[in-house]
Amino acid sequence: MQKLTVIGLGPGAGLDLTLRAREAIESSDLIVGYTAYIALIRDAFPHKEMVSTGMKKEVDRCRLAVEAAVSGKTTAVVCSGDSGIYGMAGLIYEVAQDYPPIDIEVVPGITAACGGAAVLGAPLTHDFAVISLSDLLTPWEKIERRLRAAAEADFVICLYNPRSRSRADMLRRACDILLAAKGGDTPCGYVKNIGREGQTSVVLSLSQLRDCEDVDMFTTVFIGNEQTKLLNGKLVTPRGYLQREE
Amino acid sequence: MQKLTVIGLGPGAGLDLTLRAREAIESSDLIVGYTAYIALIRDAFPHKEMVSTGMKKEVDRCRLAVEAAVSGKTTAVVCSGDSGIYGMAGLIYEVAQDYPPIDIEVVPGITAACGGAAVLGAPLTHDFAVISLSDLLTPWEKIERRLRAAAEADFVICLYNPRSRSRADMLRRACDILLAAKGGDTPCGYVKNIGREGQTSVVLSLSQLRDCEDVDMFTTVFIGNEQTKLLNGKLVTPRGYLQREE
């Protein structure tokens, strides 16, 4: 059967690429992806046919890939981070419903939650919630409900798409919701451009995060739970092994 | 400065290993890990010195690794999945407080949430919560609170450590909490032995999951949100791209 693979490239498509992802790219005839992600792998696979499409062209991109696979080309769709977490895997399954059956495989990648946590220390060593602050596809009321629930149940929280030019105040609004249940001194952190040129990370309090103007769409934000603390500048949520021994 | 790396091996330590993880193992003098994880990489790195310790020996294992690094050996601690999600990264930072300063690096890996989701389809394409059902280190009341909050705020839910011999009824108790907020026909799935020999996956309803005896500690469980559906046997949570176009 015709084959379509949806590949997660990890944060920077470099050292965090898995062997499975690399092999899947190498065994594909055509690679399809968002312009910025194709740029990340262009030089590493110079002889591959690649097609890139722009932002907000997700449906077109997936149709193009499915149609290529149906027509007989072994095709791969590449995504930044993991292909399943806010990635194209779901849309590929949906779009493929309109075409003759093809064999779809999802190849996971290192998502920004894991990649960013590794830079900051170990904030996700306990139960956590991942929430996107983008309201392009989700009503803001639902995002607020999730923020409130995650704060009240003491999850560590990881925010994707925390702030964009057109939604400059969303991080502040999100922090205000979290501050209703969490202390202003709750340890937080963020990482920009994970695994890419210009990677930077900052550790700060929830109150400081609320007023932070430095966060953008290429940033992943982490908000600690009641146990999270700073150890030599690293953000760490103890799992409880040491505390059990005391 | 002496170097200690905490490495996530991905689900099976095979094709899902990243290039960064492989290089970190190769550049270490000593590899430390839980017996079952050392066994996964023993054959791939035949000339490396490796030390394994048993279950519930997490603190001893981390002390051994930190002491080796302090003594001058470039040391790596290996974890299944990601090193930061219920992995050893947090404990390494805690234990290292008792010793002279060393350079600690966390190398992320594909966690079971991403690896299992890829097998089932694309259940995590929207906001999700990750919860461990093990009450060895977390009071059961707190786990219940998190389950309730995640269900009420319509997160997709991913369960780690869902059931063990000594806690045979915890998955059932967790499902009962979820069923108070979610329909019994909510699409769910689980994957056993992700990326390893004997990998199996099952798609079923939340009611069926409640009474499922097949789930064990090597299983990762996924519970859909209100949008999650089955497409040709795959568990998919639409992100909303297609729905926006309608």
Would you kindly provide a written description of the structure presented here, covering whatever features stand out?
- The structure is a homodimer of 246-residue chains.
- Chain A is α/β, with parallel strands linked by helices and 246 residues long.
- Chain A has nine helices and 13 strands.
- In chain A, the strands form three sheets. Chain A has a five-stranded parallel sheet, sandwiched between helices. A five-stranded mixed sheet of chain A has the order 7-8-11-9-10, sandwiched between helices.
- In chain A, strand 12 (229-231) and strand 13 form a beta hairpin.
- In chain A, helix 3 (58-70) crosses helix 4 and helix 6 (140-152) packs parallel to helix 7 (170-179).
- The first copy, chain A, is elongated.
- The model of chain A has no long low-confidence stretch (mean pLDDT 95).
- The interface between A and B is large, with 79 and 80 residues.
How would the blueprint of this fold be written?
Two copies of one chain form a homodimer.
Chain A lengths: L2 E6 L10 H8 L3 E5 H8 L6 E5 L4 H13 L4 E5 L9 H8 L6 E5 L4 H9 E2 L5 E5 L7 H13 L3 E5 L9 H10 L7 E6 L7 E6 H5 L8 E5 L5 E3 L2 E3 L4 H5 L1
Parallel strand pairs in A: 1-4, 1-5, 2-3, 2-4, 6-13, 7-8
Antiparallel strand pairs in A: 8-11, 9-10, 9-11, 12-13
